Amino acid sequence: MSVDAVLSRISEIRNQIDALRTGTTATVASAASAASSSSSAGSSAATDASSSSAFADALATATGTGTAAGTPVSTATSVDAGSGTLATGSGATGSDVVADAKKYLGVPYVFGGTTTSGMDCSGLVQTVFKDLGVTMPRVVPDQAKMGVAVGSLKDAQPGDLIIPKGEGHVVIYVGDGKVLHAPRPGKDVRIVDNWYKDSDIATIRRIVPAQASATTATAAASGAGRTDLQTAALLSLMNSGSAA
After folding, report:
1. Is 121 a catalytic residue?
2. Which of 31, 85, 89, 244 is the most exposed place for a label (fewest CB within 10 A)?
3. 3-state SS string over 70-104?
4. Residue 173 parent element (H or E)
């Protein structure tokens, strides 16, 4: 199962739990009846609501997405770029940013452009992140506020954005002292040696993680077991109901 599929499934589970807590989905009594063909029909509304809450708690405990009854379950991480945070919801990394940006090598510079017919520096950045499922602002001054700050060029990783003083340009760091950018009219998107020094730079921004986190890797490895955890939670609830 891919990382994207795991993250999507986790989001679905959390949404289902939230819905169960507010009573907006089918009750667990109905789900249990369909699954086991042995539950009796006609449970009262109060019993259904109680069962829904119990199932939500059981599932949250089994999947590690919640705690005691009444505690809100956290929502999936946003894929929108934000100030001071990484956009992790899409699963994209810095290497993905570089790989996608390279698709636009040779595209001519067109002021205000965001397509393969032509694009400017910030249009290139916005388009690359859009390809990866991350929402970014359109112009350099706004892009310069997104993600987290990187201290200096020595700390830059592939996929980071370098914005010079004056915020009139933006380039994508590709590693090994090189950057990818849309330079100016008459030029096209290209990779060149980075000419900026730390003293020239207003900010370096990291929008997505430089590499997949250990947490993401663990989620990918254990993703196949999520369905079993849901089933275990349901069976546990059914068994406790039978014993009552």
Report:
1. yes
2. 244
3. CCCCCCCCCCECEECECCCCCCCCHHHHHHHHHHH
4. strand 171-175
Yes or no: say if 204 and 162 are a contact pair by the CB < 8 Å rule: yes
Instruction: Return the number of other C-beta atoms located less than 10 Å from residue 68's C-beta.
Output: 8
Give the C-alpha separation, 64 to 21, whole Å: 16
Q: Is-above-0.85 flag for pTM?
A: no
Contact between 90 and 78 under an 8 Å Cβ cutoff? The reply is no
Q: Which of 59, 87, 121, 134 is catalytic?
A: 121
Determine the Cα–Cα distance for residues 7 and 207; give it in Å rounded to an integer: 19
What span, in angstroms and rounded, lies between the C-alpha atoms of 63 and 69? Answer: 15
DSSP type of residue 195:
-
Q: What is the pLDDT of residues 123-153, one digit of tens each?
A: 999 999 999 999 999 999 999 999 999 999 9
Nearest-angstrom CA–CA distance, 125 and 170: 8
Q: Residue 143 in contact with residue 125, Cβ under 8 Å?
A: yes
Q: Name the active-site residue from 49, 77, 153, 169.
A: 169
CA dihedral 217, 218, 219, 224 (to 10 degrees): 110
| Dihedral, 101, 186, 192, 181 alpha carbons, nearest 10 | -30
Q: Could you say which of 9, 14, 21, 181 is catalytic?
A: 181
Per this entry, what is the length of the chain? 244
Q: What is the chain's mean pLDDT, rounded?
A: 76
